[in-house]
Request: fold
Amino acid sequence: MTRQQILDSVSKSKFLSYVVHPDYLTVDICWNWIGGVTKNGYGAMQVKYYGKYSTISAHKIAWSFYRSSETEGLVIRHSCDNRVCVNPNHLVLGSYVDNARDTVNRKRIKRGISHYTNNLTEDQIKEILLLKGKHTQSVIAQMYGVSQTLVWMIHTNKHWSQRPNIQH
Reply:
C-alpha cells in the first residue's frame, strides 16, 4: 500500500468536514484543521485503506487535492507557520534544506538561553564572557560545572546568537 493509494482513498467531502474556513476561495486566511493532531501539532487524519489504518498529515492531503499528488523527495512547507493550516495557498513544496532554513529564518528553533538543554543563566554567561583571557577555558568550565567546549562556544559566539550586553 503506497502513500499515494492511501491519499487517493480519502474523500474530499470527509476531509473538508474537518476544516474551518470562512470561504474556500479565501487566499490569505488559514483554513484550520479541527480533526486529529500529531504530537508535533500538525493536523492528521486516520485513513482506512483495505482494512488497515494509516495516519496522513492533513496538509499533505490538502496538497494532493488542490495541487499535485507528486511530492517525491520533497516536503510540503507552511508559509503561514500555522501547523494546522490546510489552505493550499499557504502550502509550498520544497526540499528538507528549505524546510530547515525556514525553521531558522522564522526563529522557530530555540537557541541559547531559551534552549531546553541550557543550564546557565544570562548572568552566568556574562560572567563567563568577562572571564575570557583571565583564566583558561578548562578552569572556567570547572567553575560553572560545564564542559570546556561549551565555554569555547560561548567565547566564540557559536552557542548564543545574541550575546548578553556586558558593561565593563
Q: What stands out?
A: The beta strands are 19-20, 32-33, 36-37, 43-49, 52-57, 75-78, 91-94.
